[in-house]
Design goal:
This protein has 250 residues and is an alpha/beta fold. It contains 7 helices and 13 strands. It folds into 2 domains: 3-165, Spore Coat Polysaccharide Biosynthesis Protein SpsA, Chain A (Alpha-Beta Complex), CATH 3.90.550.10; 170-248, no CATH class. The chain has helices at residues 18-24, 42-47, 61-70, 88-100, 170-190, 195-216, 223-248; strands at residues 3-11, 28-35, 53-55, 76-79, 84-86, 105-108, 110-114, 117-118, 129-134, 138-140, 149-151, 155-157, 162-165. A hairpin with an 8-residue loop joins β10 (138-140) and β11 (149-151). α5 (170-190) runs parallel beside α7 (223-248) and α6 packs antiparallel against α7. The model has no long low-confidence stretch (mean pLDDT 96).
């Protein structure tokens, strides 16, 4: 019997990831994909697993995901990204929880992998994220980046993990960082932060980010990859404030 949950996915040129995700969610009753006009084989791969593949011009992470949610039809919705995988243990737990408990949403722990290694420290575990919710109770917070689902009601926590295969190389991290830092800069500007505050954060926030990840959150126990993560996130922090400052000074 299929799990009575709608899976909502957004894609853009994800041919290297999407089939593994779709294989991991094929036991769910409905799969909805919203694609931003991929130029690779993403759409063709998706159509092998579902007839609910829609194409929509990119309007930001939150709006794309909300559109995908609105295309689903079942009472329960699971939102996943192309570089994530749903394990058998997680599927069983989801089925049991929605069948027997009276919650409106669930946080799911994520195992985040960086350069092929599960990062157990650095603030990356258990990385609870709200992804499973009742249709009538959940919605996307409209932000440019780091969007999240807001549930009005009782929320619980699942034990089994969602696997997240993020950043397979340093180059991939830097490429994505350019986009995310630009979007984060727009959020900073929208918050009406004063110029001098942005300058102070541009100077001190990268240092604090490194200390927080590598020392306070025991990133050193993740070895060289923990060090790399702390440095890269410090640089990302610097970039978003530098870009915000640059735009305010134009």
């Amino acid at each position: 019997m299929k799990i009575p949950v709608s899976v909502a996915i957004i894609t853009k040129n994800e041919e290297k990831n999407i089939e593994k995700l779709l294989e991991s969610v094929r036991d769910f009753q409905e799969i909805v994909v919203v694609d931003s006009f991929s130029t690779d084989n993403t759409v063709e791969i998706c159509k092998k697993y579902t007839n609910k593949v829609y194409q929509k011009d990119w309007e930001g992470f939150a709006r794309q995901k909300q559109f995908a949610i609105e295309k689903t039809t079942l009472n329960w919705i699971l939102v996943v990204d192309a570089d994530e995988r749903v394990t058998e243990e997680l599927k069983k737990e989801i089925f049991e929880k929605i069948s027997n408990e009276n919650f409106d949403g669930y946080y799911i722990p994520r195992k985040n992998f960086f350069l092929g290694k599960w990062i157990k420290y650095s603030g990356w575990w258990p990385d609870y994220t709200l992804r499973l919710f009742r249709r009538q109770k959940g919605r996307l917070q409209m932000r440019q980046v780091h969007e999240k689902i807001i549930v009005e009601g009782k929320v619980g926590y699942l034990k089994n993990s969602l696997l997240h295969y993020t950043y397979s190389s340093v180059s991939e991290f830097i490429t994505k960082m350019q986009n995310y830092s630009t979007l984060s800069a727009e959020e900073i500007i929208k918050s009406n932060s004063k110029n001098y505050k942005i300058v102070l954060k541009m100077i001190f926030s990268p240092i604090f980010t490194f200390i927080k990840m590598f020392i306070l959150r025991f990133g050193f126990l993740d070895g060289t990859k923990g060090f790399l993560l702390a440095v890269l996130y410090s640089y990302y922090t610097f970039l978003k404030y530098a870009k915000a400052w640059e735009r305010l000074c134009r």
